[in-house]
Amino acid sequence: MIAAEFRMLSEWHLPVAPERVWPVLARVDAWPEWWPQVRSVVGIAPGDAHGCGAQHRVLWSSGLVYVVDLTLTTCEVDAPRLLRGRAGGDLSGEGRWLLTAIPIGTRVRYAWNVQPTRPWMRRASRLLGPLFAWNHHRVMRAGAAGMARRLGVELIDYRALA
Q1: Residue 4 has pLDDT above 90, yes or no
Q2: Per the domain annotation, does 70 fall within a domain?
Q3: Which residues 6+ apart lie within 8 Å of 32 measured at CB?
Q4: Which range marks the domain in which residue 119 is found?
């Protein structure tokens, strides 16, 4: 059975400029300090002066009964606007962070397009797809709230767009 491809889009609204959001988002090694579901981050490779090529092994807890083990490789950096990377490990695909200045502060959009690689996840992906998507948005909502706390502001809005 071919695994389902998951295309999920999240949006956070924070009442600060992108230049304040960027350094918190771009420091993957510090995610466990503010993102509750990030269990650990281990740096594998530092990347170039802009961070392209940086690799991190990230362990994520979930609202379900499994841990997601990912190797994230930064592919594109355009500070303080765009951070794009490839995922390997339990999920294979791409994630793209886009920060946009809006009248109330910053819109943070995250597009996550992945397929599961673990055999049980591949087999169950078509049946459990809605549960996997619910879990993803739960993790992202907690990340949005954690980012707001880290910045010392209130989260204005979180939206699951896809």
Answers
A1: no
A2: yes
A3: 38, 39, 40, 41
A4: 6-160
Give the pairing type, strands 91-102 and 68-78: unpaired
Asked whether 121 and 44 are in contact (CB, 8 A), the reply is no
Angle in degrees, CA 84, 37, 45, rounded to 5: 45
Distances in Å between the Cα of 147 and the Cα atoms of 20, 23, 103 are 11, 11, 19
Token readout for 5 is 């491809």
**Whats the size of the chain, residue-wise?**
162
Copy the structure tokens of residue 158: 């979180």
pLDDT for 101-140, tens place per residue? 999 999 999 999 999 999 988 998 888 889 999 999 999 9
Domain count for the chain:
1
Distance CA 40, CA 44 (A): 13
Collapse the DSSP code of 30 into the 3-class scheme (helix H, G, I; strand E, B; otherwise coil) and give the result. helix
